[in-house]
Protein backbone atom coordinates (compact mmCIF):
# COMPACT_ATOMS: atom_id res chain seq x y z
CA UNK A 1 0.00 0.00 0.00
CA UNK A 2 1.44 3.42 -0.97
CA UNK A 3 2.71 5.35 2.00
CA UNK A 4 2.16 2.42 4.34
CA UNK A 5 5.62 2.42 5.86
CA UNK A 6 5.96 6.19 6.15
CA UNK A 7 6.06 8.12 9.38
CA UNK A 8 2.62 9.61 10.12
CA UNK A 9 1.83 12.06 12.91
CA UNK A 10 -1.34 14.01 13.66
CA UNK A 11 -1.26 17.35 15.44
CA UNK A 12 -4.66 17.83 17.02
CA UNK A 13 -6.65 18.03 20.21
CA UNK A 14 -8.94 15.46 21.75
CA UNK A 15 -11.92 17.83 21.45
CA UNK A 16 -11.37 19.19 17.93
CA UNK A 17 -14.07 17.80 15.60
CA UNK A 18 -11.75 18.53 12.68
CA UNK A 19 -8.99 16.40 14.23
CA UNK A 20 -11.62 13.72 14.89
CA UNK A 21 -12.48 13.85 11.19
CA UNK A 22 -8.88 13.04 10.29
CA UNK A 23 -8.61 10.31 12.93
CA UNK A 24 -11.69 8.66 11.43
CA UNK A 25 -10.17 8.76 7.96
CA UNK A 26 -6.89 7.26 9.18
CA UNK A 27 -8.79 4.55 11.04
CA UNK A 28 -10.86 3.65 7.98
CA UNK A 29 -7.68 3.35 5.93
CA UNK A 30 -5.91 1.29 8.59
CA UNK A 31 -3.07 3.81 8.86
CA UNK A 32 -0.92 3.70 11.98
CA UNK A 33 -0.04 7.16 13.27
CA UNK A 34 1.21 9.04 16.30
CA UNK A 35 -1.34 11.35 17.90
CA UNK A 36 0.36 14.51 19.18
CA UNK A 37 -2.00 16.49 21.44
CA UNK A 38 -1.61 20.26 21.08
CA UNK A 39 -2.42 23.11 23.44
CA UNK A 40 -4.38 25.53 21.28
CA UNK A 41 -4.30 28.19 24.00
CA UNK A 42 -0.49 28.07 24.14
CA UNK A 43 0.61 26.93 20.70
CA UNK A 44 3.90 25.10 20.49
CA UNK A 45 6.74 25.47 18.01
CA UNK A 46 5.85 22.32 16.09
CA UNK A 47 2.29 23.47 15.36
CA UNK A 48 3.39 27.01 14.44
CA UNK A 49 6.12 25.69 12.14
CA UNK A 50 3.81 23.10 10.56
CA UNK A 51 0.90 25.47 9.94
CA UNK A 52 2.34 29.00 9.93
CA UNK A 53 -0.57 30.45 7.94
CA UNK A 54 -3.58 29.23 9.94
CA UNK A 55 -1.77 28.22 13.16
CA UNK A 56 -4.56 25.68 13.76
CA UNK A 57 -5.08 21.96 14.22
CA UNK A 58 -5.30 19.50 12.64
CA UNK A 59 -2.07 19.08 10.78
CA UNK A 60 -0.99 15.76 9.29
CA UNK A 61 2.75 15.18 9.17
CA UNK A 62 3.53 12.52 6.59
CA UNK A 63 7.22 11.68 6.27
CA UNK A 64 7.91 15.06 7.87
CA UNK A 65 5.81 17.06 5.38
CA UNK A 66 2.75 18.93 6.72
CA UNK A 67 -0.73 18.80 5.24
CA UNK A 68 -3.23 21.30 6.68
CA UNK A 69 -7.02 21.72 6.82
CA UNK A 70 -9.11 18.68 7.71
CA UNK A 71 -10.99 18.22 4.42
CA UNK A 72 -7.75 18.58 2.48
CA UNK A 73 -6.12 16.06 4.80
CA UNK A 74 -8.96 13.55 4.35
CA UNK A 75 -8.61 13.77 0.57
CA UNK A 76 -4.85 13.41 0.90
CA UNK A 77 -5.28 10.31 3.04
CA UNK A 78 -7.74 8.91 0.50
CA UNK A 79 -5.26 9.40 -2.34
CA UNK A 80 -2.09 8.22 -0.59
CA UNK A 81 -3.67 5.11 0.92
CA UNK A 82 -5.85 4.46 -2.11
CA UNK A 83 -5.90 0.69 -1.80
CA UNK A 84 -8.28 0.51 1.16
CA UNK A 85 -11.79 1.80 1.88
CA UNK A 86 -12.17 4.59 -0.70
CA UNK A 87 -13.69 7.66 0.91
CA UNK A 88 -14.70 9.76 -2.10
CA UNK A 89 -17.03 8.39 -4.79
CA UNK A 90 -15.41 6.99 -7.92
CA UNK A 91 -17.73 9.03 -10.15
CA UNK A 92 -16.52 12.63 -10.78
CA UNK A 93 -20.01 14.06 -10.26
CA UNK A 94 -20.38 12.10 -7.03
CA UNK A 95 -17.06 13.48 -5.82
CA UNK A 96 -18.13 17.02 -6.69
CA UNK A 97 -21.41 16.62 -4.82
CA UNK A 98 -19.67 15.19 -1.74
CA UNK A 99 -17.15 18.05 -1.74
CA UNK A 100 -19.93 20.62 -2.10
CA UNK A 101 -21.85 19.33 0.92
CA UNK A 102 -18.69 18.89 3.00
CA UNK A 103 -17.84 22.55 2.38
CA UNK A 104 -21.45 23.43 3.23
CA UNK A 105 -21.14 21.66 6.57
CA UNK A 106 -18.00 23.58 7.53
CA UNK A 107 -19.37 26.90 6.27
CA UNK A 108 -23.03 26.88 7.31
CA UNK A 109 -23.54 24.16 9.93
CA UNK A 110 -20.41 24.79 11.99
CA UNK A 111 -21.03 28.55 11.95
CA UNK A 112 -24.58 27.99 13.18
CA UNK A 113 -23.38 25.57 15.88
CA UNK A 114 -20.86 28.11 17.16
CA UNK A 115 -23.61 30.73 17.14
CA UNK A 116 -25.51 28.67 19.70
CA UNK A 117 -22.40 28.41 21.84
CA UNK A 118 -21.73 32.16 21.62
CA UNK A 119 -25.28 33.16 22.59
CA UNK A 120 -25.48 34.97 25.93
CA UNK A 121 -29.25 34.90 26.53
CA UNK A 122 -31.99 32.29 26.14
CA UNK A 123 -33.70 34.47 23.53
CA UNK A 124 -30.52 34.82 21.49
CA UNK A 125 -29.85 31.10 21.79
CA UNK A 126 -33.33 30.29 20.51
CA UNK A 127 -32.70 32.49 17.46
CA UNK A 128 -29.35 30.81 16.87
CA UNK A 129 -30.96 27.38 17.19
CA UNK A 130 -33.47 28.33 14.50
CA UNK A 131 -30.54 29.28 12.26
CA UNK A 132 -28.83 25.96 12.99
CA UNK A 133 -31.99 23.98 12.18
CA UNK A 134 -32.32 25.89 8.91
CA UNK A 135 -28.68 25.10 8.08
CA UNK A 136 -29.14 21.39 8.79
CA UNK A 137 -32.42 21.01 6.90
CA UNK A 138 -30.92 20.79 3.37
CA UNK A 139 -28.77 17.89 4.51
CA UNK A 140 -31.91 15.78 4.89
CA UNK A 141 -32.42 15.92 1.12
CA UNK A 142 -28.67 15.65 0.49
CA UNK A 143 -28.64 12.39 2.42
CA UNK A 144 -31.47 10.99 0.29
CA UNK A 145 -29.62 12.02 -2.89
CA UNK A 146 -26.17 10.79 -1.93
CA UNK A 147 -27.07 7.60 -0.07
CA UNK A 148 -29.39 6.16 -2.69
CA UNK A 149 -31.55 4.77 0.11
CA UNK A 150 -28.64 3.06 1.84
CA UNK A 151 -27.26 3.46 5.36
CA UNK A 152 -24.68 6.22 4.86
CA UNK A 153 -24.05 9.24 2.67
CA UNK A 154 -21.50 7.12 0.80
CA UNK A 155 -23.90 4.19 0.46
CA UNK A 156 -23.26 0.93 2.26
CA UNK A 157 -20.21 2.17 4.15
CA UNK A 158 -18.86 5.35 5.71
CA UNK A 159 -17.26 7.82 3.29
CA UNK A 160 -16.03 11.39 2.89
CA UNK A 161 -19.29 13.22 3.54
CA UNK A 162 -20.14 10.93 6.48
CA UNK A 163 -16.85 11.99 8.08
CA UNK A 164 -17.42 15.66 7.21
CA UNK A 165 -20.68 15.81 9.16
CA UNK A 166 -20.18 12.90 11.56
CA UNK A 167 -17.18 14.49 13.25
CA UNK A 168 -19.50 17.20 14.65
CA UNK A 169 -22.14 14.90 16.14
CA UNK A 170 -20.59 14.76 19.61
CA UNK A 171 -20.38 18.56 19.68
CA UNK A 172 -24.11 18.59 18.88
CA UNK A 173 -24.59 16.25 21.83
CA UNK A 174 -22.48 18.49 24.08
CA UNK A 175 -24.68 21.48 23.16
CA UNK A 176 -27.75 19.41 23.99
CA UNK A 177 -26.25 18.62 27.39
CA UNK A 178 -25.30 22.26 28.01
CA UNK A 179 -28.40 24.04 26.72
CA UNK A 180 -31.05 21.42 25.97
CA UNK A 181 -30.97 22.07 22.20
CA UNK A 182 -31.32 19.49 19.42
CA UNK A 183 -29.57 20.37 16.16
CA UNK A 184 -30.47 17.13 14.41
CA UNK A 185 -34.08 16.59 15.40
CA UNK A 186 -35.85 13.35 14.40
CA UNK A 187 -39.11 15.28 14.07
CA UNK A 188 -37.66 17.67 11.49
CA UNK A 189 -34.98 15.58 9.78
CA UNK A 190 -35.84 11.91 10.41
CA UNK A 191 -33.49 10.40 7.82
CA UNK A 192 -30.58 12.48 9.06
CA UNK A 193 -31.33 11.56 12.67
CA UNK A 194 -31.40 7.85 11.76
CA UNK A 195 -28.09 8.26 9.92
CA UNK A 196 -26.54 9.97 12.95
CA UNK A 197 -27.56 7.07 15.19
CA UNK A 198 -26.05 4.55 12.77
CA UNK A 199 -22.88 6.57 12.32
CA UNK A 200 -22.20 6.89 16.05
CA UNK A 201 -22.49 3.11 16.39
CA UNK A 202 -19.75 2.44 13.83
CA UNK A 203 -16.33 1.32 15.02
CA UNK A 204 -14.83 4.32 13.22
CA UNK A 205 -16.89 6.82 15.22
CA UNK A 206 -16.34 5.03 18.51
CA UNK A 207 -12.56 4.82 18.11
CA UNK A 208 -12.18 8.51 17.24
CA UNK A 209 -14.83 9.88 19.60
CA UNK A 210 -14.15 12.84 21.85
CA UNK A 211 -15.39 12.47 25.46
CA UNK A 212 -18.52 14.59 25.93
CA UNK A 213 -17.21 15.81 29.30
CA UNK A 214 -14.05 17.13 27.64
CA UNK A 215 -16.05 18.91 24.94
CA UNK A 216 -18.32 20.55 27.52
CA UNK A 217 -15.30 21.71 29.54
CA UNK A 218 -13.60 23.10 26.43
CA UNK A 219 -16.80 24.81 25.30
CA UNK A 220 -17.02 26.45 28.73
CA UNK A 221 -13.48 27.81 28.32
CA UNK A 222 -14.39 29.25 24.93
CA UNK A 223 -17.46 30.95 26.37
CA UNK A 224 -15.37 32.45 29.18
CA UNK A 225 -12.80 33.76 26.68
CA UNK A 226 -15.51 35.28 24.47
CA UNK A 227 -17.18 36.89 27.50
CA UNK A 228 -13.86 38.40 28.62
CA UNK A 229 -13.21 39.79 25.14
CA UNK A 230 -16.71 41.29 25.01
CA UNK A 231 -16.28 42.84 28.46
CA UNK A 232 -12.93 44.34 27.52
CA UNK A 233 -14.41 45.82 24.36
CA UNK A 234 -17.09 47.57 26.41
From TrEMBL:
Give the EC number(s) under which this enzyme is classified. 2.5.1.18
Q: What is its main location?
A: cytoplasm
Give the GO terms filed under biological process for this record.
glutathione metabolic process; toxin catabolic process
Query: Which GO cellular component terms are attached?
Result: cytosol
Q: Which UniProt keywords apply?
A: Cytoplasm, Transferase
Q: What functional role does this protein have?
A: Is involved in the conjugation of reduced glutathione to a wide number of exogenous and endogenous hydrophobic electrophiles.
Class of the enzyme per the UniProt entry, highest EC level: transferase
| Protein name from the UniProt record | Glutathione S-transferase
One GO molecular-function entry: glutathione transferase activity
Q: Which family does it belong to?
A: Belongs to the GST superfamily. Tau family.
What lineage does the source organism belong to? Eukaryota, Viridiplantae, Streptophyta, Embryophyta, Tracheophyta
Query: InterPro entries, per this entry?
Result: Glutathione-S-Trfase_C-like, Glutathione-S-Trfase_C_sf, Glutathione_S-Trfase, Glutathione_S-Trfase_N, GST_C_Tau, Omega/Tau-like, Thioredoxin-like_sf
GST N-terminal domain residues: 6-85
Looking up Gene3D superfamilies in the UniProt record yields: 1.20.1050.10, Glutaredoxin
User: Could you tell me which species this protein originates from?
Assistant: Triticum urartu
Q: What region holds the GST C-terminal domain? A: 91-222
Catalyzed reaction equations: RX + glutathione = an S-substituted glutathione + a halide anion + H(+)
Localization, UniProt: Cytoplasm, Cytosol
